[in-house]
Amino acid sequence: MSTEEKSAAPRSLAEALRVRDDVSLAALLRSRPDLITPVPTELTQLATRAGTRASVVRALERLDRFALQTAEALAVAPDPASYGELLALMGGDEQDPAVAAALPRAAALLREQALVWGADDRLRLVRTARELLAPSPQHPSPTGLGPTVREATAGMSPGRIQEILAAVRLPSTHDSVSAVSALAALFADRRRMAALLAGLPEESREVLDRLVWGPPYGQVTHDPAAHLRALLDRGLLLPTAPGTVVLPREVALHLRAGRAHRAPEPVPPPVEAAATHRPQVVDATAAGQALAALATVEELLKEWDEGGPSVLRAGGLSVRDLKRTAVALDVPEPVAAFWVELAYGAGLIASDGEAEERYAATPAYDEWRELPPAERWARLAGTWLTATRTPGVVGGRDAKDRTLSALGPNLDRSAAPEVRHRVLALLAGLPEGASPVEESVLARLRWERPLRGPQQREAGSGDGRGEDLRSRIARWTLSEAELLGVTGRGALAAPGRALIGAPEAPRRAAEEKEEPEGPGDKLPVHHHRALTATAPPTSAERAAATATAARLLAPLFPEPLDHVLLQADLTAVAPGPLERGLADVLGVLADVESKGGATVYRFTPGSVRRALDAGRSAADLHAFLARHSRTPVPQPLTYLIDDVARRHGRLRVGAASAYVRCDDDATLDEILADKRAAALGLRRLAPTVLAAQADPAALLDGLRAIGFAPAAESAAGDVLIARADSHRTPPRAAPEPVPDGPPAPDDTLLAAAIRAVRAGDLASTAPRKPGPGSEASDGGGGEAGAPGGALPRTSAAETLATMQAAVLTGEALWIGYVNAEGAASQRVIAPIRVEGGFVTAYDHTADEVRTYPLHRVTGVAELADDAG
């Protein structure tokens, strides 16, 4: 390197950032948004912030495995290191071609993210990153390498070092520094090291083989065996503490053939396809799942329509209420937790906020029900994709060993949206209609974010596998996507592809043929290109994606039916989704017996009485069934309705504490004689009236339990229509996702931030002429171009005179300015006009013309002639 090139080489990260163009700075700030929160005043501050521990840790956590391995290799390389030295550490003596091909990308990524700076002949890892990744006894390096010879011999006596030189047949030196250098040079020489190792006993070689890939530390006794003594005498093992020895880094690298890692991973593992299905089958299966998802959410809200379970004091559902919900939905408890959390995340349920707090549907639920089915599904799917609340952790334990409950606190996992989106993107990268091998998806995610694995393990997961959080979220994503209808048969459906903004896959001609398919249809295992990670979509892009998904899903939904098939066994079969009005009435008149492709409803005395309690007459029910049945109304169903209607309302229950009245005193005699009515505390007040100790609701339930069909009546004696009032919460906002760090900046913010940083850097680094008092030791205003980033200080008269002169000459000035809030800043301005106590100037830092009060200018200095 020439003298001019050396002088042009950056001497710090700030200088390296200073020579970047705007596109490169924008890439840095986009990949590390914490650097502009808040916007730094100039590039030196940006570089300082980029080297802080929190920011470096966050940047390292977002590196893929090979980029991280590259950073780890730089941490054990000389500082600075050349690109050739880095390549030797990554590819070894054999120079793996895959490593050589991938290393430029990894090095460019590290340089882009300001973790590495300098030219290719002087690569420097940011000091904080080196401290985090370099080997130490407390924090072993992922490479498995130990300290260098120089580090390991730092506390060794000079005499002992000379003894090691003699043992390896090196000439003695006059000082320890040159002795250590000679020893390190020997260990780094492949030919001489091979000769040295060839003279060792086989047992000594076995010891080195055990330590070579780490951990490099071992234990020895005060009187080591001969094969260990041979290693210690030659410096191949060096003592670090009493009874502890370490394999020097140079020796390990020789034994590893120069490689820093046992298995470099330059290429991401492929996502393998387990089976393939025709895209039409995938879409149809996903549409069926989407319909089932809508039905499940509606069933959940129907269960809670009059007010759902109570809210625990600490928030959330109790274990008992979650079990009841699971039984009502006929699903396992983890699946019930998923549906409850999905409805909560979509803003369909919330706490009512009353004294005895309960969960209930929100007003948004009524609006949601009026939407077309495809739009209702798109809202649920969009909520699921971006939610940070993670129902999979329900039942686990938090940091304080408290059980995590559904709808409770501490369920947010900020990594969830990114993992869900990435899993679906990997599925989109497979051939259309292909379902993935689950383990290959997890392996790919672990390659893309290796540091986000072991650091995010949670206690109480209950899975027994000790998986990292990202892998667990990925497993949940695959199962939840199938439940929701984003995937069908494990493959990404067309609406799911649109949901993540992926382009529509072309239909292949071969897939249009009617061919049998099954689990035996395997795809060849090869590497399919996955979608590359991009900046998070904006709210407008997400809205467009969900609208496209709804548009693609709508034709896949069957048209709602306006009829059912009545059967002689008191059941009705709905061969598909029903129109809303028909489904609502049938849901009151009958109980759902089974769900699936067709829904089976069963008519019982209790369900018919429920319809009569809701204000319908027997004639209404007969007419309804005749109108909506494609089969004749069975005679047993007609008899059931008439029999229940004939007995309905003969008994009347009102409020005394409660009373029963009936025109037929024989019926009252029958009730009094029934032992099952003893708990109601009944006694006769008149031939046609019984009084009870129970309240009216308990009395109604008790009489119905022993086979009667009483009706409630008002204080005026009229029959009360027992139509349940829907319980709604006040308007509630859906829970907001918890961001994973600062939000990614948009292009407008990036442009403004870069302009402000460059302007501030110009103001802080522009050469200034010394002011009038620069030669004085004190007083006289001092030096105008104050060093160290301090604001310039000049008297008011000097400031005014310099401003007026600059108006005539057109020169730029460096000023210190304090705004109305007291915040001080440095600015470079070109004065245009000075009058009335104000200066109007073109402000280079803001790239616009501004007017400043002169009394807020702390001082002024002229820029040097070569400041441009």
UniProtKB/TrEMBL annotation:
Listed InterPro entries: WYL_dom (IPR026881), XPB/Ssl2_N (IPR032830)
Taxonomy, superkingdom: Bacteria
A Pfam family of this chain: Helicase_C_3
Keyword Chloroplast assigned: no
Domain WYL: from-to ranges: 798-860
Region (Disordered): 497-525, 726-747, 761-792
Entry keywords, A to Z: ATP-binding, Helicase, Hydrolase, Nucleotide-binding
Biased segments, Pro residues type: 732-745
Name under which the protein is recorded: Helicase-associated domain-containing protein
